[in-house]
Predict the 3D structure of the following.
Amino acid sequence: MSAGDTHRGLQKEKDVRMSNIIAAKGVADAVRTSLGPRGMDKMIQKGDGEVIITNDGATILSQMSVYHPTAKMLVELSQSQDIEAGDGTTSVCVIAGSLLNTCQGLLDKGIHPTAISEAFMAALQQADVILQGVSRPVDLGNREDLINAVTTCLSSKVVSQNSDTISPISVDAVLSVINPETATNVDLNDIKIVKQIGGTIDDTELVNGLVFDKGAKKTAGGPTHVENAKIGLIQFCLSAPKSDMENNVVVSDYAAMDRILREERKYILGLCKKIKKAGCTVLLIQKSILRDAYNDLSLHFLAKMGIMVITDIERNDIDFISRSLNCMPVAHVDSFTADKLGSAELCNEVTMPGGTQRVVKVTGVANPGRTCTVLVRGTNKLTLDEADRSIHDALCVVRSLVKKRFLISGGGVAETELALKLSSWAKEQTGMKGYCVRAYAEALEIVPFTLAENAGLNPINIVTELRKQHAEGNTDAGINVRRNCITNMSEENVVQPLLVNTSAITLATECVCMILKIDDVVPVVEGRVDEHTAMTGMGGRRSILRYRRVVQPQAAGR
C-alpha cells in the first residue's frame, strides 16, 4: 500500500468521525434549551395534525425525524435513560454532546480515538466513586425526602406549579404497591393512570381501587350504585351466535323469523340467568371485535336482575383488573361460578366535577392486590397528556430511589463536584491519559453552564463562582434559579436520586466511546447484489447456484 492510499484512508476515517460528531451534537443542541427549571418547552406538530407541548427530552427526541445513524444513537441514548432512571433524559444528551465536542478538540490534536476512549472509561469509574462519596442514604420511610426528590423532578415540567398535588400522590402510589423493607424494584404496570378531561390538575387524586373511564350502561335502567358488590369479569359475548363473516343466512318465512328471535331471546336469557345464579351484581364485559360483546336485549335482562354493567374493557387491562379485584376472567358461561368473583364495598358511578364525563369507582376491595389507580384531571388534552408524562417521570424518580437508595443535591452540584475532583485526579495520571481525563472533567461543566444560561444568568460568572465554592469545601453549593444566585441545595430541598446522575454519565460516556470507535459507514442495500459481489464471495456462489438450477432443466430437455 502506497503512502497516498494510507493518507486517503486516514482522511476518510477523520471525515467519518467528524460527520458523526456533528450529527450527534446537532441532536444534543436541539434539546439543550429544555434543560432545567427555566428551560423552554417544545411544540411538536405531527403529520396527522396532533400537537404535543413538552420539555421532556425523551418525548422530544422520540418524535423527531432523525435520519443520520449516529444521531439515532442519541435518540436511543435518551430512551435508555428513560427506561433506567425515568428522569435526566435531557441531561444525558447534553452531556453526550459536550463530551463529543471535547473529543473533536482532542482528535484535532492528534490523539488516537482508542486512547481517548480508554481515558474516558477510566474517568467514568472514578466518577462513580466520587458521586457515591457526595451522596447520602435515604430511608423509604422518610416520606418528606421522597416528596422533595419528586418536586425537584417536576420543577422543569409544564405542570411544575401543581407539584404540591402531584408529588405526594406519586410517592404514595409507589409505596402502596411495594414492601419498602424488601423491595429492590417497582413494576409501574401496577399503577394505572386514568385521564379525564375537566377540572384542573389540582383535582388529580389517588384511588385505592379501580377507576373505569367510562360510565355504567344504564340505557335499560340498570343500577349505577352497588354496595357490597360481587364483581365478575367475562370474556364471552352476551349476544346471539353469528355465522362466519363470508356467510349469510337468508330467511323468507315469517314463522321462521319469529322462531329465530325466540331462540335468540331464550339463549341470551339463559346466559343472564347463569350470571345471576353465581351471585354477580357488577359485570365487566371485555370488548369484542368479531361480534357484539352485548346487545340491548342482554342489557335489558341484566337491568331487570339488578346487575350493574360496565362494557368495553380493553384486553390489555384484563390482567390489571384481575390482580386489583382478586377475580378471575371467565371465557365461557359454564365456568362462571361464585369463586371467580371479586368483592368490593362500593361500586359507584360519579360525575366528575368541572365536566360532564362519568367514571365508575370501585373502592373497598376485599383481598386487593398491590395495585392502585391515579385519576388525572386537566382542562384540555394537551395539559392532560403532559400531566400524564410528568406523573410517569415522578413515579420513575421514586422507583430510582427504591433501586438505589441514595440522594444527591441537584442544581448542577454533582457535575461541578465531578469536574473539580476529576481535574485533581487527572494531575495524578501520566501522559495522554491525564490530558484526556482533564478534558472529560471540563466537559461535565456543561450542565451548570446550561442551567445558568437557560435561567438568564451570566454562565461564566456563575460557573466560576460555583467552582470556587466547591474548591472551598461547600459540596452542596448549586445554582438556585429562583433567587438567581448560588445557594446550598440541600437546605433548599433540591435533591434527586443518585441513580439519575450515575446512569446519565455512564450512558453518555459509553455512547461517546462507541461513536469514537467508528471509522467508516457502510451502507447496505437489501435485495440487490452488485456485479462484483455476484462474481466473488458468497454472493457469487449463490448466484452460480441459482444459475445452475435454472439452466440444468433446459439442458436435460435438449
Remarks:
- The longest helix spans residues 3-32.
- Residues 531-558 have pLDDT under 50 and may be disordered.
- Residues 149 and 496 are 5 Å apart (CA to CA).
